[in-house]
């Protein structure tokens, strides 16, 4: 007969938690509940993670509508002037032969926010339902959201670069319009939403589901 495998104690059993400020393992029972190294307040989990994530995500969805409907830039070249939305700008760059810039703007301003919205909604709904489905894959999905978040402002930088090049060559003028402000708000609120989500909730399922899952495996 094989001997039973002895599993190491978990952090909650040892009353330990990681400081969200500096990453130090701290005693959650100490008073005051602050990190001894950086002084940050200690939390076993991010406080009100699901509620705050939903709030930031819904705010981003609200701003996403005017970000796509309102013009993001005003272009004046060779005596003609026009306002362009994000989609309109993508089409103009594509038709003018700058397909690489059009592709970058499309991915950064339409593709990336859509992926982040769908991914965060999937994570939130599955966590609220206490789902045991694909927990490892959902954790990887959260990491993907963190990675692509660094590129969220890429299209804003591209528009700024194009505006600088156009005015440097004295071909015309490009001015920002309200749509770019709303898109910036979309980026900020989606980043706050991703930062507010607690990925450890993916692995925190109700005890009844954990037991039923173990029973099916055996």
From TrEMBL:
<feature type="transmembrane region" description="Helical">
    <location>
        <begin position="54"/>
        <end position="73"/>
    </location>
</feature>
<dbReference type="InterPro" id="IPR007498">
    <property type="entry name" value="PqiA-like"/>
</dbReference>
<protein>
    <submittedName>
        <fullName>Paraquat-inducible protein A</fullName>
    </submittedName>
</protein>
<feature type="transmembrane region" description="Helical">
    <location>
        <begin position="148"/>
        <end position="168"/>
    </location>
</feature>
<dbReference type="Pfam" id="PF04403">
    <property type="entry name" value="PqiA"/>
</dbReference>
<keyword id="KW-0472">Membrane</keyword>
<keyword id="KW-1133">Transmembrane helix</keyword>
<keyword id="KW-0812">Transmembrane</keyword>
<keyword id="KW-1003">Cell membrane</keyword>
<feature type="transmembrane region" description="Helical">
    <location>
        <begin position="101"/>
        <end position="127"/>
    </location>
</feature>
<dbReference type="GO" id="GO:0005886">
    <property type="term" value="C:plasma membrane"/>
</dbReference>
<dbReference type="InterPro" id="IPR051800">
    <property type="entry name" value="PqiA-PqiB_transport"/>
</dbReference>
<feature type="transmembrane region" description="Helical">
    <location>
        <begin position="180"/>
        <end position="197"/>
    </location>
</feature>
<keyword id="KW-0997">Cell inner membrane</keyword>
């Amino acid at each position: 007969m094989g001997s039973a495998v002895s599993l190491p104690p978990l952090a909650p059993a040892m009353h330990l938690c990681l400081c969200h400020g500096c990453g130090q393992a701290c005693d959650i029972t100490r008073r005051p509940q602050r990190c001894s190294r950086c002084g940050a307040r200690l939390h076993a989990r991010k406080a009100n993670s699901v509620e705050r994530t939903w709030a930031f995500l819904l705010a981003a969805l609200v701003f996403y509508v005017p970000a796509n409907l309102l013009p993001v830039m005003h272009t004046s070249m060779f005596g003609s002037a026009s306002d362009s939305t994000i989609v309109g700008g993508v089409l103009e760059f594509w038709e003018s032969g700058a397909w690489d810039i059009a592709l970058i703007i499309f991915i950064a301003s339409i593709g990336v926010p859509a992926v982040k919205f769908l991914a965060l909604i999937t994570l939130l709904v599955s966590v609220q339902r206490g789902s045991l489905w694909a927990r490892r894959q959902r954790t990887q999905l959260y990491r993907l959201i963190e990675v692509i978040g660094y590129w969220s402002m890429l299209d804003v930088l591209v528009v700024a670069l194009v505006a600088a090049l156009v005015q440097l060559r004295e071909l015309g003028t490009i001015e920002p319009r309200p749509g770019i402000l709303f898109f910036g708000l979309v980026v900020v609120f989606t980043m706050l939403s991703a930062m507010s989500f607690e990925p450890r909730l993916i692995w925190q399922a109700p005890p009844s589901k954990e037991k039923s899952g173990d029973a099916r495996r055996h």
